[in-house]
Amino acid sequence: MQVAPLCGRKAQATNSLPGKGLREAWWLKLQRVKKRVLFLCTGNAARSQMAEALARADHGDVLDPVSAGSRPAGFVHPLAIRAIEELQMSMDGADSKGADEFRNQSFDVVVTVCDSAAQDCPTWPGAKRIEHWPIVDPSYGPDDPATRYDRFVATRDELRRRIDELVESLAEEEPQPEKS
Q1: Residue from 45, 79, 121, 135 carrying the catalytic annotation
Q2: Contact, 118 vs 132, CB < 8 A?
Q3: CA 50 to CA 159: how far, in whole Å?
Q4: Which of 47, 81, 142, 161 is deepest in the core (most CB within 10 A)?
């Protein structure tokens, strides 16, 4: 039995699987066992917010993403929202949350998306795996209106690529169904 890799957006069982029932059963199993992922940055205003939105929109069938900040800013950056909404994805309801809100929860993966959050939270109780992605804060840089938004788009695109890779690595860890 073969299952399409989860690295593509909204992966689905392939038609090469024998029997419609088996395809549906395997796909339902994947949907039931969503991987919990926490994206952490310092302020939970840009990078981790974009990561949560991208993971939910592109891989919500296999991921249950949330985001938080080690020192929450109390707002979501308008350019982060704009960069995500440019892809026709929603950030409705996004708010800057503190890491303590999730401290007692279990996660399959905790991803720190900046060096500061990695220093603030080098370990995470209940995390099966911790990854560090040192992504530069798009809020910082020349205050040039012509390039400011471009930094957010570049950050969004890097996050999207890394999330795709994360999902693929999680799929490789999944036990494969027995061949019939």
Answers
A1: 121
A2: yes
A3: 8
A4: 47
Verify whether residue 7 is a known catalytic residue.
no
Catalytic residue (choose from 30, 37, 40, 41): 41
Residue 133: DSSP 8-state: -
Asked if residue 40 lies in contact with residue 130, where contact means CB atoms within 8 angstroms, the answer is no
CA nearest neighbour of 71 among 45, 36, 93: 45
Over the stretch 72-130, which tens digit does the pLDDT of each residue have? 999 999 999 999 999 999 999 999 999 999 999 999 999 999 888 878 777 788 899 99
Q: pLDDT tens digits for 2-17?
A: 333 333 344 333 344 4
Name residue, tokens 């949907």: 31
Active site residue 114: yes
